[in-house]
Amino acid sequence: MKGAPASRPVSNEPEDDSVLAFAVPGLDLRGRIVRLGPVVDEILTNYPYPESVARALGEGVALTALLGSMMTRHDRFQLQTRSDGAIDLLVVDYDPPGRLRGFARYEKEGEAPLGAPAELLGRGHMALTIENPEEDARHQGVVALEGEGLALAAFEYFRQSEQIPSFLRLAVAEVVEPRGRRWRAGGILLQFLPPRGASLIESTGEVPDSWNEGVALATTIADHELVDPSLSAERLLYRLFHERGVTVETARPLKAGCRCTDERVENMLKSFSSQDRADMVGDDGRIVVTCEFCNRRRIYDPAALD
Fold first, then answer.
1. For residue 197, what pLDDT is reported?
2. In this structure, which topology does domain 18-256 adopt according to CATH?
3. FRET partner for 231 with CA separation of 20 to 30 A, picked from 6, 14, 134, 270?
């Protein structure tokens, strides 16, 4: 018989740039909590984003970290939105075991866009794509963006496709540190996963009281708790669920990083015909390639690509 999980004191040591899986067995709940510091700050400062755009992208990075870390160790995960808002395109990639990158495209003419992330995204759709390069397999789910933001869209995705009761909260903030102002982000995902799964809800037509209790506890989280650099994820979970008992797995570290490399970009350019490369040459006689994600600029001599 499998024994009960080993108990230990709650860790008060904050772990930035990590995602922590947890369970509340007494309520049939499982979830993940993500805390992002330098990783999200690097991604949000690759471009001189207006504050409002950076907040929207920060939410996308936090959500992608939560969902991407649920994949198998070989699966890549991408979150992409296309919409009619000031931010017409937002893309965040998660590569196993925990590498993140992302960018947002917005109208740069005129004044910087203002408003909450949900307003800037507007209406359109959000696509969640899982790709396994080893098996050449790809799966995509699409859910509508109804002007209510990423968290609500993800909630609808779980409700419609997974049929799993879920709770999701995201937070992004710019904090003042000794080194200056830095971006932080956090999020928590809570799901009802009883032993009999969705069949329990389907058979009764009702969500059990244990789920309602879990949501009631989770809704007490304040945004500042999700981004507080001095508050550990374990301490926050203990605040929420200590009366019911909470177990945690080993935190998974996250890092910022791009897929682009000198070799990959050079091979991409060499795959074009000589005429196509000639059309890319600028007034200075060089080919300039700028990565949309990390904003790194690479300059090539066309003659060296022949």
1. 52
2. Hsp33 domain (3.55.30)
3. 6
Assess whether the region 18-256 and the region 262-305 belong to the same CATH fold.
no
Burial class (CB in 10 A: 0-12, 13-18, 19+), 299: exposed
Indicate the fold that domain 262-305 takes in CATH: CBS domain Like (3.90.1280)
Domain ranges of the chain: 18-256, 262-305
Check if the beta carbon of residue 124 is closer than 8 Å to that of residue 84: yes
Q: If DSSP codes are grouped into helix, strand and coil, which group holds residue 67? A: helix
Cis peptide before 38 (omega within 30 of 0): no
pTM of the model: 0.91
The angle that helices 51-68 and 150-157 make with each other, rounded to 10 degrees, is 30
Q: Which of 29, 32, 136 lies closest to 76, judged by CA?
A: 136
159: its two tokens: 């409700």
- Mean pLDDT to the nearest integer, 222-233: 95
What one-character DSSP code corresponds to residue 255?
E
Q: Are 305 and 266 in contact (CB under 8 A)?
A: yes
Q: What are the pLDDT digits (tens) for 60-109? A: 999 999 999 998 777 899 999 999 999 999 999 999 999 999 999 998 76
Helices 209-218/233-241 angle, 10° precision:
130
Contact (Cβ atoms closer than 8 angstroms) between residue 210 and residue 28: yes
Cα–Cα dist 187/172, whole Å: 9
